[in-house]
Design goal:
alpha/beta; 3-stranded antiparallel sheet
Amino acid sequence: MRIVLVGPPGAGKGTQAQFIASHLSIPKISTGDIFRANVSGGTELGRKAKEFMDRGDLVPDEITIEMVRDRLAEDDAADGFLLDGFPRNVPQAETLKKMLAEMDTRLDVVLELVVDEEEVVRRLSGRRTCAQCGKIWHVDFDDKQDDICDDCGGQLFQRDDDKEEVVRHRLEVYQEQTAPLVQFYADEGILVGIDATGPVEEVTQRALAALRPYEK
């Protein structure tokens, strides 16, 4: 099965992508993971990407598209894949459609994770990251009363892209550039939306139920 996962920042795409891809035995292809690996590795691509990511802006299409093209050509993606974080806008979606046509294939379904904007702000701005072990905690969900990691005793900090003003800017960018994907894929007749609020396990079950008619 060839799937694209769409939804605003903080909708849980990364978490759900992992569960869905594992259940369907297909690779999860996340541009976010590739960007972060390059940023932490200090590569030229990483430095370029970080400038955009720190502002809450999207990484330019030309960087993203070439990265995805190479990844889809790898052997493990031959029988299916789940794309998380690409495409992010209609031009990228049109490029992906052409790219897949050249490979003599196409998308089966686009799954939209639907979540309220204020819930997204609450989820992301409440995150705190451990400077020592990297674990992420949440000021509401983990009932944290201090800025110390319960696992290793490291200091917790708020990442720049988790600050409320950056989160709200990311949502504005999403509405302007990524949300039109919903209409694009609705017009293609392959869009399915699910409610992405509630416990992770419940969202996963909704996602798998929505995808079941598309399994081959």
